Amino acid sequence: MTTHQTPSVRLENASLSFGERTLWSRLDLEIEQGEYFAVLGPNGSGKSTLLKAMLGLIGLSGGSLRILDRPARRGNPEIGYVPQQRPFPSEAPLRARDLVGLGVDGHRWGPGLFSATRRRRVDELLERVGASEYASVPVGLLSGGEQQRLRVAQALASRPRILLCDEALLSLDLNHQQAVSRLIEEYRRESGATVVFVTHEINPIIDDVDRVLYLANGRFRAGSVEDVMTTRALSALYGARVEVVKVNGRYVVVGAGPGEGAEDCHAHDVEGGA
Ligand SMILES: Nc1ncnc2c1ncn2[C@@H]1O[C@H](COP(=O)(O)OP(=O)(O)OP(=O)(O)O)[C@@H](O)[C@H]1O
């Protein structure tokens, strides 16, 4: 990672509020090109909203947000997005390959649309995510894990410089979690893309992550996993005693009550402060 490169994402004195409620404020953050950056925190702490701001779908309440040195904007082809998983209805009139094809088409509708090149690209993406054998199956009939692989393929189709993932591993079993996280990491390594990964659980991506941002109770903390995943840092964020224990390379957070985002005892990560 060079120090002269334009950051992928730069937030300056950023704040986001809905009415009286401030999700986060005074947020200064630079995410470097090629960095694997995780965003952690309990339900409702503003993780997805941060991604939506990067996608240009939600405006900041204050401060600035630049993506590759330009103001965040909708439909930025430099960004790939794996949205929070919602199952497709079983009657959805799309086959697996159609879904991936939509990603290949991106914003460029035109004569290449039905070309052999497009077909090859769709096949290549399907193969890459291990979805070739169900390429012609309607998406609504596929399992959650299979659908999620297709979403990743769709997000990678435009060869984005920044990949935003919102709980991309949620409700996947361990095998599928590993397969999907491996795909994302492989893409980052070969393309030099930046990954911003929103998650409740750091452990499935712990080997890949460079830095984390932990949001909780309007507070936040950014830093290395070792800096953020500590009893002291998380207790400060939650405003209550929280124990962070590392067991066999995995983080277990004990003591943050329900509604504070952490379970009584669970594997997890976080931190921050407004
Ligand atoms: N457009 C909106 N108008 C008003 N409130 C909103 C809007 N979008 C999000 N919120 C609220 O902002 C808070 C943060 O939402 P967000 O989806 O970013 O949380 P999150 O950290 O991603 O949570 P989860 O882990 O549950 O997905 C929530 O309380 C949500 O209800």
TrEMBL record:
In terms of InterPro entries, this protein maps to: AAA+_ATPase, ABC_transporter-like_ATP-bd, ABC_transporter-like_CS, Metal_Ion_Import_ABC, P-loop_NTPase
Any single GO molecular-function term of the entry would be:
ATP binding
For whether the record's keyword set contains Transport, the answer is yes
Question: Which segments constitute the ABC transporter domain?
Answer: 9-242
Keywords assigned: ATP-binding, Nucleotide-binding, Transport
Family classification: Belongs to the ABC transporter superfamily.
Q: What is this protein called?
A: ABC transporter ATP-binding protein
